[in-house]
Amino acid sequence: MGPDGHTASLFPGHELLAEEDRWVAYIEDSPKPPPKRITLTFPVINHAANVAFVASGSGKQEMLSNILDHPERGLPCSRVRPAAPGHVYWFVDDAASAQTNYEKTPFKL
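-> structure tokens emitted (109 positions)
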């Protein structure tokens, strides 16, 4: 999870968010360095069996709350929704999740 809510190299407001056919795409105008990259797109990410995100620290509080509590805002991380029977897992610490209303469950081995 990037500080702007991006995942992979799928950035808020970028045209690649609308990609529906290609599984991998080339990006030449990344808002974060380096400007030229390749990225997986939502068609392939959302066909994963499992997707895991990791966020830690108080610097992630506001963005994590936006992603989990307000998916309607359409930030790239909140658009990761694997097709059934896929799952999304968030591994976050108390500092990062302090502002979220999303139900928390403890991690158990």
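The radius of gyration is 14 Å.
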